[in-house]
Amino acid sequence: MDIVDAQVHFNRFGTLDTGLAMMDAVGVSALLYDEYWAFDERSRILPGYELPGGAFRHVFPLAEEAALRLPERFAYLVRFDRRDPELDRLIAAVRTTPQQKALRVVPWTEQGFGEFAEGAEDPVFAAAQKYGVPVFVLLPGRTDSLHRYLKKFPDLPIIVDHCGVELTAGRLHDDRLSGFDRVLALAEYPNVSLKWTHAPRLSAQGYPYPDVLDMLLRVVEAFGPERVMWGSDHSESKDHHSWAESLFYIRDSAALSAGDKAWILSGSLRKTLDWPAS
């Protein structure tokens, strides 16, 4: 079975060979590499550097190396500061740079979420639509603020990260499902997909997460399996569950058809990012 993980901060595993051994052990054919080292003192994602005008230029050296060495197993996403004076050129280049497949927008701070809701990321979304570059966006529990972008950029593939709900450790299970109906409502927009990442954290029952599987069935019914993509984010979720557990409750489920699994576990991501299997 072709299995493609929609998000892993692969650099956090150590060497490339170590990470590849982990992928092979779990049965992951390929993955989307999101290079993330840490946050700096201003909550900016590293690696990167500040430009003279104050914008932050992100770089992706390890993701690029992995994708160039093993393009059949790695593609990667990029992120750009909306204030970057070369924003249009940088986003245009995604379409011609080998294995760069998408952008990711991560407001992260309270100020960032507020600015996002007011339309601050319009320049990024506009350039992404202009050049046909899909955008992943992290809005935990704040998906209402995405509607303006979905209406304004109807031809842009937009993927909602991490089930669209809050995943804060220690919250009561019922609280963790707050806002899920608002996530399902996004299915009305044909250009939006949902990345089913970190979902086991929502479970009150443990592996094989029957309550989370029920939620996934609702998502599939609303969006269709072709707009749902599985991701582990194992580099950040390993404190709660294993990489295998994040995958096998879906792969081995009798509640999902073989066709549904093919879309969720690889087909949706490959189609959205125009990344055919080798």
UniProtKB/TrEMBL annotation:
One matching Pfam family is: Amidohydro_2
- InterPro entries this protein is in? Amidohydro-rel, Metal_Hydrolase
Task: Tell me the domain of life.
Answer: Bacteria
Stated name of the protein: Amidohydrolase
- Taxonomic lineage from the root: Bacteria, Thermotogati, Deinococcota, Deinococci, Deinococcales
Q: What are the UniProt keywords, alphabetically?
A: Hydrolase
Q: Where is the Amidohydrolase-related domain?
A: 66-267
Q: Would I find Transcription among this entry's keywords?
A: no
Which GO terms fall under molecular function for this chain's record?
A: hydrolase activity
